[in-house]
Amino acid sequence: MKNYNNELEIILEKKSFSVDVKNILLNMLYKIETSYEDYFTVKRNVEEKKIFIEKILNTIEECNEITLMKTSQDEDKDNIYTKFKIDKENNKIEVYPNEEAMLYALNNFKVIKMYLNDDYKLIRHSLPKILNLGIEINNTEIIRDFDAWSWNVQTDEIKSIEANLVYQNIQILLGYKKLNELLENKELKTTLLPIEKCLEEMYGKENTEILLETIYKLSIIVDIKKDEEERIRLLEEKERIEKEFLRLDNKTTLLEDIANKKKKILNKIKEIDIILNNNEKLLEEYKKRNEKLSEHSKIFSLSHFSEILQRERNQELEKIDKYNKMIDPKNYTFNKINFEKQLSILKDINFEEKNKNTTSKLIVKLQEIFLDCFNIQINNVDNKKDLINLMYIFRYYIFLPIDKNKNIKDCKSLKNKLLNLEKNLVEKLYLAKIVNRNIDFNIIDSIFYTKIISLENIEFEIESKNENNYLILFDEETIAEKIEINDIDISKLKLNKKMKLFN
């Protein structure tokens, strides 16, 4: 095994960082190294330890300067973990003095930049922001939620519940390898088509459209809460789209309006042609225009004036071409559908309020469509290794925070979907003979709600006492949990005997 601590020390020897900075970097790396095995076991959707750590080491090596910010007791504790300043031009970082903030800063040093084209006018600001924030939260999870002994989700230290859910949903559905590959695709800097196409291939067009539209709405709401300029821009954009859609929707009025505009344009072209083909009129118009212009703006020759008129003529022809394309049946239908999609994204967003209730509803809706897609993923897998991975991923998923006070497993609105997915997954585990079919579903169900790191090493015992049944879960030789569990079939199991859960 590589000694990454030695590698870091070699890098730090060449740097003029302060002793405090070097200590934080060494402590950060130690926490990552000691927690990575548990992190990998629990989450599954992660990079290899070697790749994860070497990226960090390469970033540290690139930094010319890392300094620590001063903190005070009055500082907002919730923000301490995400405060940093990056001067990319000079390769400098200024950061709060703790390991998680340092990891945030190092990850942000090479943040993915997306510059979406005009097709994504509504989300060109908000979506890259929520994805980048989700990546930051994801990359610091290892020292936020893992401590080499246990897994404990630190909800208060997650900068954005919404960003984390969006990113984790996409990462689970695509897999971290595919998602990383797509995010590193140069094309993705301007378009989302590679992600859309990949999701459609895996989960179908309808599911993909609902999933992405919900993500778009959520990203906009999260963004406009803090960005007043973006709120105003989108409000103006909404008004423009509504006007354009109403215009397209009334086809008779639209055709009459375009016909009148084209008639005026053709008259203007005709006037320009008359001037261009008659020297006297050309001179007359030349003088007339120059009289209205300031001294420094005057047209300096008749030939120059002819060029100006020709450009004006071409501009008018372009307007006619634009109107012809607008009423072309294919373009008309495409434009109308496009405006409908944009209005669908904006319709639930109240630009005058904070959208708290809308945010909660969208988060639940996003999880509902995510679970439908995740079920498809389970249905398409039969390989034992992949099924075991999905079992761990599902357990990880249900412990994700859905708000500041509860996890997905505690969300009543998702209870039925979670249960149906779980039954589907357990049936696949039975069929693949990963779990003995004699073990009641409710016993297996209990393991998804435990934070024992390695599920495959769990042993259990059924204890019957005072007409009640208790499920005792063992993590190695230690009793991890004791749960009252009466609604189970124990006829095929021996009482008071430790048994393995997995074959």
Structure explained in plain terms:
By secondary structure, the chain is α+β, with helices and mostly antiparallel strands. The chain has 4 domains: 1-110, no CATH class; 112-243 and 353-434, no CATH class; 250-340; 435-503, Immunoglobulin-like (Sandwich), CATH 2.60.40. The chain is built from 19 helices and 7 strands. The chain has a 4-stranded antiparallel sheet, with helices on one face. Strands 1-3-2 form a 3-stranded mixed sheet, covered by helices on one side. A hairpin with a 2-residue loop joins strand 4 (458-465) and strand 5. Helix 10 packs across helix 11. The longest helix is centred in the middle third of the chain and has 26 residues, at 251-276. The two termini are 31 Å apart. The relative contact order is 0.07.
Regarding quaternary structure, what we see is: single chain
N-C termini distance? 31 Å
Mean pLDDT score: 89
Give, in spatial order, the strands making up the sheet with the most strands: 6-5-4-7
Number of domains: 4
Number of strands: 7
Q: Give the H and E element order.
A: HHHEEEHHHHHHHHHHHHHHHHEEEE
User: How many helices does DSSP assign?
Assistant: 19
Helix content: 55-70%
Structural class: alpha+beta
Estimate the global geometry from the Cα principal axes: elongated
Largest sheet: 4 strands, antiparallel
Low-confidence stretches: none
Could you tell me the radius of gyration in angstroms? 31 Å
β-strand percent reads 5-15%
